[in-house]
Amino acid sequence: MLTTTATLSSSSASQLAPLFHSLSPNPISLRFSSTLQVTNNRARRTLTSFTRQKCQLPALRVSASYEAAPATAEASTVPSEMKAWVYDKYGGVDVLKFDTKVAVPKLLDDQVLIKVMAAALNPVDFKRRQGKFQNTDSPLPTVPGYDVAGVVVKVGSQVKDFKVGDEVYGDIHEKALDGPKQSGSLAEYTAVEERLIALKPKNLDFTQAASLPLAIETAYEGLERTGFSAGKSLLVLNGAGGVGSLVIQLAKHVFGASRVAATSSTGKLELLKSLGADLAIDYTKENIEELPEKFDVVYDAIGQCDKAVKVVKEGGGVVALTGAVTPPGFRFVVTSNGAVLKKLNPYLESGKVKPVIDPKGPFPFSKLVEAFTYLETNRATGKVVIDSIQ
């Protein structure tokens, strides 16, 4: 076996990824921050010529070392233990511990095992860690994490739609609050039912893909539940957040909204416009209750349902993700569904819908505590993503 390490830019790594997947049936480990690491017995003799002739990339610094080939492909890619973040009691960020000897999840017949390349953080992650729904939670200790993007390294006996080497993404917990898995995505490996994931959009890297699943499924399901459709108007509260930024885009480009308004702080108004908002409202200067117009649907992604219901048209819908719910507003908890991701992939691949990642990130795996601390300030723009997971 040859282990090859190449140092190159993030964009160059993205270009090279398809090559290495074609060179071997075995999964590979890619780091899209500053290095590309490949375990492959043909990579050495093809790497330099390919990058110069086809990718037109600058010369790479390549080092190699040989070792005896393992008895099976699985033995080289799936160890019995992995690195992961774990907590064994509920509380603040201080309960998170980095553990290098966590058992790799056992695979069920309908699951795939994913080598995690990137994972995203969501408010449900820290609310779960704080014990806010411990009555329906899985037993401690817990490896946190809902969103994942990575490479399939093993498939269960009943898996039909995925194979080893596939690049996938998804929310690994079918029910966000009701019995989520004990072993989440903030680890080197995670196991998930095939019905909950989809192939990663071809134009997105792992970091971008990891930012999407829970947020885009929440955005989509919320719009569907309100009966949103072409020609209707929408107001999004917290349009620059992880869910809100995707609600704007889906409403405009997937559902065919006639008009989209959204709120944010002063510095994020241009972002709202770039996402497709026809009206960007500075909540620090304007009171939405005094707007001269009302909307068919209000999507409250910040916890202001009492204000939201005052700007919705009679017979319209108000969906509230957090905070107290004022009638006719309603709340729902998203159900993870790979079919929704598959349906939305064409919009992602065409560029009509784009991931929004907070500019402070992505955070490396080693800085998870810092990433959670930042997320919990409620000041993030788009999604907080973790990469360099190894």
Distance between the termini: 20 Å
CATH top-level class of the largest domain: Alpha Beta
**Reported CATH architecture of the largest domain:** Alpha-Beta Complex
Radius of gyration: 22 Å
Structural class: alpha/beta
Q: What string gives the helices and strands in order?
A: EHEHEHEEEHEEEEHHEHEHEEHEHEHE
User: Which of globular, elongated, flat, extended, rod-shaped describes the shape?
Assistant: globular
Number of helices: 11
Write down the overall mean pLDDT.
85
Protein name: Putative oxidoreductase
GO molecular function: 2-alkenal reductase (NADPH) activity; enone reductase activity; zinc ion binding
EC number: 1.3.1.-
InterPro entries: ADH-like_N (IPR013154), AOR-like (IPR044626), ER (IPR020843), GroES-like_sf (IPR011032), NAD(P)-bd_dom_sf (IPR036291), Quin_OxRdtase/zeta-crystal_CS (IPR002364)
Structural commentary:
- Belongs to the zinc-containing alcohol dehydrogenase family. Quinone oxidoreductase subfamily.
- Keywords: NAD, Oxidoreductase.
- This protein folds into 3 domains: 2-74; 78-210 and 369-387, Quinone Oxidoreductase, Chain A, domain 1, CATH 3.90.180; 216-320, NAD(P)-binding Rossmann-like Domain (Rossmann fold, 3-Layer(aba) Sandwich).
- It contains 11 helices and 17 strands.
- Strand 11, helix 7 and strand 12 (259-264) form a beta-alpha-beta unit.
- Strands 6, 7, 8, 9, 10, 16 and 17 form a 7-stranded mixed sheet that branches.
- With 390 residues, the chain is an alpha/beta fold.
- The chain has helices spanning 10-23, 43-55, 73-77, 123-129, 206-210, 213-225, 244-253, 269-275, 305-308, 338-349, 368-375, and strands at 2-7, 35-39, 61-66, 81-86, 97-103, 111-121, 147-155, 167-171, 189-193, 197-199, 233-237, 259-264, 279-282, 295-300, 312-320, 363-364, 384-387.
